[in-house]
């Protein structure tokens, strides 16, 4: 799966490394729901190794993406986050994202997971 994302020209991926080790990454691309609207991008993933949480690395990765998108025609960045992922919800709120009220449900190993949509309006 990740090989396809890294090789897909419409996907953008930035990585964080420390001493040659991958410690995190961020990935965004066209919004799946609005593929033909270049003014909307979707944050697909932001991952950090847990030992690097709360060290500014996630914020740094996000700032790179936001700077890039603010210098483009993009007007909105959307994302989906698990409702149970309080740490991610807090992080995205601190970065300026707002809940839209949209939800999606998916089943994984007989459990229902609820994804919440968030959006950040760009300048």
Describe the protein in words.
By secondary structure, this protein is of the alpha+beta class. It has one domain (2-121): Gcn5-related N-acetyltransferase (GNAT) (Aminopeptidase), CATH 3.40.630.30. 24% of the residues lie in helices and 45% in strands. It has helices at 2-7, 57-70, 86-94; strands at residues 12-18, 21-30, 40-48, 76-82, 98-108, 111-121. The protein has a six-stranded mixed sheet with strand order 1-2-3-4-6-5, covered by helices on one side. A hairpin with a 2-residue loop joins β5 (98-108) and β6. The longest helix is centred in the middle third of the chain and has 14 residues, at 57-70. It is globular and about 40 Å long. The chain starts with a helix and ends with a strand.
Structural class by SSE content: alpha+beta
DSSP E strands, number:
6
CATH class: Alpha Beta
CATH architecture label name: 3-Layer(aba) Sandwich
Rg value? 15 Å
Specify the biggest β-sheet. Answer: 6 strands, mixed
Which percent range describes the beta-strand content? 35-45%
Mind sketching the topology for me?
Layout: H1 2-7, E1 12-18, E2 21-30, E3 40-48, H2 57-70, E4 76-82, H3 86-94, E5 98-108, E6 111-121
Parallel strand pairs: 3-4
Antiparallel strand pairs: 1-2, 2-3, 4-6, 5-6
Short note summarizing the structure:
The protein has helices at residues 2-7, 57-70, 86-94, and strands spanning 12-18, 21-30, 40-48, 76-82, 98-108, 111-121. It is built from three helices and six strands; from the N terminus they run H-E-E-E-H-E-H-E-E.
């Amino acid at each position: 799966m990740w090989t396809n994302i890294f090789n897909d020209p419409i996907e953008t991926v930035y990585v964080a490394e420390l001493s040659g080790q991958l410690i995190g990454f961020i990935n965004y691309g066209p919004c799946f729901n609005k593929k033909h609207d270049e003014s909307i991008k979707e944050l697909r993933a932001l991952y950090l190794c847990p030992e690097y949480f709360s060290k500014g690395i996630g914020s740094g990765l996000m700032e790179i993406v936001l700077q890039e998108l603010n210098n483009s025609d993009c007007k909105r960045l959307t994302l989906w986050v698990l409702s149970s992922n309080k740490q991610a919800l807090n992080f995205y709120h601190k970065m300026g994202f707002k809940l839209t009220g949209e939800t999606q449900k998916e089943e994984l190993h007989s459990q229902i997971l609820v994804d919440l949509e968030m959006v950040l309006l760009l300048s």
